[in-house]
Every structure is written in structure tokens, then in C-alpha cells.
Amino acid sequence: MRMAPQTFILMWNPEISSMKIDDWNNCVARFPFADFNWSVYEHEQVRYGDQCYLVRVGSTNTGVVLKGTFISEPQKGDDWSGKNRITYYCDIMIQNITNTDLAPFITTKELQDNIPSFEWTKGHSGRLLNDKEAYQLEQLWDEYSKRNAAIIKQQKKLSSYCIDKSIVHKIKGFDNLVDYFKTYKNRDYKKDVECVYKHTSYNDSWNYGFNCNYDTEKFTLKLVLHKAIISITCSQIEDLNIHYDNPYFYTNYLIIYSIDEYRLRVETNDISITCKKISISKPKAYNYDAEKESVIIN
Questions:
Q1: DSSP 3-state assignment of 205?
Q2: Domain range list for the chain
Q3: Number of neighbouring beta carbons within 10 Å of residue 61
């Protein structure tokens, strides 16, 4: 039986943290396409899918700045403070993120008034709330969400995107992906042309095969979509990760976004590639031979 998600409190003091205010503002601006992880003190208690809240501490505008979900097991890494402490980090899927210098947020005073049993102004990052405290915080979040419905609605809309629209001009053959939707998912496309960029549009996807040419620094991935296959070729590769041994491996997703002005990232079904150029092929129809459990490309 699946256990209910736990709730962890992470801490961020921009006055001493390796993540400064400018770094944070960049994460807010790039939501939902910012890579994000954080140190977790009680890492032995973490389960994949647990909830977390990041609380800004220090001297000004302190309170909740992020709500998210752990999407990895704790991973040992370098100590962010440079003190060579044993430090574990978890990857986080951001649900809501706030610049407390500009936007409304749940303040430290509200946290203290409603959940006085927890220390909200100091302490290790990544402490587990008990069930009562977790429930009280969820109630507080619900109240905040009602007061700021427009902000929550906008972030929910943004979080539905898996392809960053601002970088499609950098992707050679992106029109081929648009043509795929026009041809094979025309009903969805007519209903919402933005479906090309959204997570829900790739629910039937899975990796069919790939080829890595080390001489040309190219990695080509064949991605099976509904009724057709496209090839995504990444050139001038800087980083390639394939996690076959990940116990939380999931199919059904494609993410394309920019890391910075020069580098792009493709993530699909537990393969991630950092590169400088991306091209997408024309879609090719296929039939599935159920008896042989194989794909026949037409």
C-alpha cells in the first residue's frame, strides 16, 4: 500500500547561502524550466514523492518561497557551504515559487502563529514535520492559495508546459513536431494549438532506440509518440545521462528547455542530454505488431 506523502521544511538564508538573491530571481523567471535541488538534513526519512516547502530565513521578507515535490532519492554531494560536511540533496519538482521581495507570500509570523511547535527562523534545512504540523501547514497553504488565486492559477498554467516556447527558434525542424500534431493528433491541436508545448500531449511517448556518434558529437533518440516516431538529434553534446537503473523510471514525458544562452537540455523517459544544437526529424508513421511486440516503421 502506498504511504501518504510526508512534508519536509527546507531553509534558505540568502545572506549566507550559495544561492544568492539574483540566482533565486533567475529561478523564478525561468519557472518551470529551472533545474532545482536542495540539501536535506533528515535525508534518511525522505521518500520519493514527499512534499517540501522552502522557507526564506534571515533579516528581510522571510517566509515560504517554494512548494514542491521530491523527485529523486537523496544523493550525496559537495557541501554547499564549503565546510566539507556530509551533505545530501534531493531533486525537486517545483509547484509554486515566489519572489518575496515582489509578490505576496506566507510570512514567518504566520508560520509561527499557526504552527508554534516548529522552529521557523533557524535550524537545519530538510526537517520532517509531524502529521499535525503538516496538516496545519497545508491548511495555511490553502488559505494563501485562495487569497492569491490569480498567482496560483498562472503558475499552474505555466507548470503544464514541457517545451520552452522562447527557445523553439533555436530548434531546427521544430515545425516537424507541429506537423506531427496537425497530422496525428489533429483533434487535440484544433482544440488547443498550445498542446504542442504541454506535458499532457506526450502521455503516450516512450524511447524506441538511440544512437551516439562520438566522432561527430551527436546523439539521436527515436521517440515513439501516438501513431508516429520522431527523431531528436542533439549536437555538440556537453553532458549525457541514461538512468536504466533508476527505480523510479517513468515513461511518457518530453522536456526541452535552455540552461543558459548557449546550452539546451532535452529530457525524455530518464535520458537527459545537454547540448548546443537540437534538430527534430519529420514524423514517420508506424504499426505495432502485438504478436512480436515490435514497432514496424512505414
A1: coil
A2: 7-159, 165-297
A3: 17
Q: Which numeric CATH code is attached to 7-159? A: 3.10.590.10
Quickly list H helices, the chain: 21-30, 108-114, 131-147, 149-159, 174-184, 186-191
The tens digit of pLDDT for each residue in 92-139 reads 999 999 999 999 999 999 999 999 999 999 999 999 999 999 999 999
Nearest by Cα to 34 from 90, 78, 91? 91
Residues constituting the chain: 298
d(CA 230, CA 180): 9
Tell me the pLDDT tens digit for each residue of 144-194: 999 999 999 999 999 999 999 999 999 999 999 999 999 999 999 999 999
pTM of the predicted protein model: 0.79
DSSP structure string for 56-91: E-SSSS-EEEEEEEE-S--EEE--TTSS---EEEEE
